[in-house]
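[09:14] KT: can someone run the structure on this one? pasting the chain below
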Amino acid sequence: MGMAAGANRSPGWLDANRALWDERVPVHAASASYDLEGFIEGGDVLMDFEPGEVGDVAGRRLLQLQCHMGQEALTWARLGASRVVGLDFSEPAVKVARRLADDLGYATDRAEFVVSDVYGAVGAVPDPNYDIVYVSAGTINWLPDIRHWARVVSSLIAPGGFVYLCEFHPITHTLDDATGSRFVRDYASGLPVVREAPGTYADRSAPTVYNVATEWIHSLGDVVSALIEAGLRIEFLHEHDKTMFLQFKSFVQGEDGCFRPPPAQPRVPLLYSLKASRA
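[09:31] RB: done, structure tokens below
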């Protein structure tokens, strides 16, 4: 399923996906889901297991790929990272990230955000490599070539550094939107999933014009194999039975703020986290 660059892509997929995300930035910035005001006041946007799995970031340089509005990168700065850089292909999203950094009092030598497609990250980021490359949920499904992604990631990791990925489990992309209990998409075809996606997860009723989303399902085997082929060593792969938003309509929110299937429904992995290091 790890396809060669240029294979199995819908024409114009990148421009269409960028238009979709650009249009949703102001909706997200104004939404209660992202709660930018609360974030500035100290709100936490990481999953509860992430700080422990990543470990102490004090004094380390961290790059977040596909950072959207930069909240995770800035959270790592709060936790002690000496320098954070965020990269995203949406210029409106990067502008919001820069405003957040300004509001938090971070100069560009502490927190910097750049506009680029992730495949062009090597030529876009300000530093040659980073101690930690961080990738958050809802990112690699927008990329057609997972092996190309892994090579980019590997090239950006400093010796002794690592990549940490917290991502939606690929099984969730194959399930029905209502209950998350029936398979409705192929797990292993490698073909793009092109769908109409009006609104946004942060506001289902938001009026939107650019609604064609093109995504790819990358199996756990493909992700792990791509990172190994890129010269990295897998430290761990963990699966989690909770997620951070109402991914399926039947899910219920727990006291921890996370969403899970209702009690009568069998549990499936909803997120996975992975760490891979450079010798």
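[09:33] KT: thanks! Helices lie at 13-29, 36-40, 50-54, 71-78, 91-103, 121-124, 146-155, 220-229.
[09:34] RB: yep, looked fine to me
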